[in-house]
Amino acid sequence: MSKRYDSDKVRDLVHRIYRAYGFTEEQSAEVAKTLVYTDLHGIASHGVQRMVMYDHFIQNGKIRVNSRPEIVKETDVSAVVDANFGLGQLNGIYSMNLAIKKAKAHGVGIVTTKRSGHYGIAGYYANMAADQGLIGMSSTNSRPAMLPTHATQAFVGTNPIAFAMPAEPHNFIYDAATSTVPQGKIEVYRKLEKDLPAFWVAKDGDQEINDHNDTEDLDALRDPLSNVGLTPLGGVREETGSHKGFGLAVIVEVFTSILSLGNTSTEITPEDLQVGPCQSFIAIDPAIFGDVDQIIKRFSEYLQQIRDLPAIPGKKIYVAGDKEAIAYEDRKQNGLEIDDKTLAEVKAIADRLGVSYGALDMA
């Protein structure tokens, strides 16, 4: 069951929890901002729901509180960053800010980051660039979760691709895993005891799992050597485009792990403290192509033409970012939706760290 909670109160609690871990005031504020931003935009899979995973990694040393990212190779338009196993959100903010700085100076900035951590939603970093009038892109690899087309064992991560660009009435933000759904969405469905839609998860390459009570099989999602995995975009068959989602996931590997000489998805495990995911951050100044105001105006008009197309009865046409903007207005006014199990996890972390959590409801 989910209830509504005041976003400012939740952000304050998250802030105080990360201060208790030993992060600085500024770092804790940034982490709290990213997690609450995610829930405010209706993406429950990657908001405070992820705190229990980060807590586990902080406790076992996979996330190192005192680590700082450093540039290990750099040109005017590019950089490779070693994140030194710091918290993924902090690495992402550092790396995208670096890409933005290069784009403003030279038109393009491309940063690839290795030995990082789970950084939440890729769209947050792409939108950092869009908020400054630039085009932004970000991707990350992750531990094996997706079944390549025709394979019976997971090999690549969910490997999302995010793209953001300034537009009216709000930024265009596309953020999607190259698997049918991210791992976090499966976790949310299990917490809510909801059955899974067809072909989110498959066994032996093509047998669908759509029952949240398939505990043994769903637990096997965390084991890359099992015969259970998330399906690529397009499902499990070439006829429906499975190879397209898988192909996009491999492209993400190029921009994250291959160019940085970091760990590929298949090398990442929760237990090995010496490996971590890799990420990419790209910022492009549209001014290198022409008048920025005219470019944004033309793009905004194009998006509106899509929204205005005839729709099937009872449906509305959205472009990327529309639903998130609607969710933001709702949750800012009426509170975040947090399920009971996630709230219990956050409260348990607060209790262990000696952080008071008080009343978080909308009162």
In words, what does this structure look like?
With 363 residues, the chain is α+β, with helices and mostly antiparallel strands. The chain has 2 domains: 106 residues, Orthogonal Bundle (Hypothetical Oxidoreductase Yiak, Chain: A, domain 1), CATH 1.10.1530; 242 residues, Malate/L-lactate/L-sulpholactate dehydrogenase, NADPH binding domain (Ribosomal Protein S8, Chain: A, domain 1, 2-Layer Sandwich), CATH 3.30.1370.60. It contains 11 helices and 12 strands. Strand 3, helix 4 and strand 4 form a beta-alpha-beta unit. The protein is globular and about 55 Å long. The protein starts with a strand and ends in a 10-residue tail after the last helix. The model has no long low-confidence stretch (mean pLDDT 93).
Strand content: 15-25%
The spatial strand order of the largest sheet comes to 2-3-4-11-5-6-7
| Number of helical stretches of at least 4 residues | 11
Radius of gyration over all CA atoms, rounded: 20 Å
Write down the overall mean pLDDT.
Answer: 93
CATH topology of the largest domain: Ribosomal Protein S8, Chain: A, domain 1
Order of helices and strands: EHHHEEHEHEEEHEEHEHEHHEH
**What is the number of independent domains?**
2
- The CATH superfamily label of the largest domain reads Malate/L-lactate/L-sulpholactate dehydrogenase, NADPH binding domain
CATH architecture of the largest domain: 2-Layer Sandwich
Helices and strands in order, then pairings?
Blueprint: E1 2-5, H1 7-21, H2 25-40, H3 51-60, E2 70-74, E3 78-82, H4 88-106, E4 108-114, H5 122-130, E5 135-140, E6 161-165, E7 172-176, H6 183-191, E8 201-203, E9 207-209, H7 215-219, E10 228-230, H8 242-260, E11 279-284, H9 292-307, H10 322-334, E12 336-339, H11 340-353
Helix pairs in contact: 1-2, 4-5
Keywords: Oxidoreductase
Pfam families: Ldh_2
GO molecular function: oxidoreductase activity
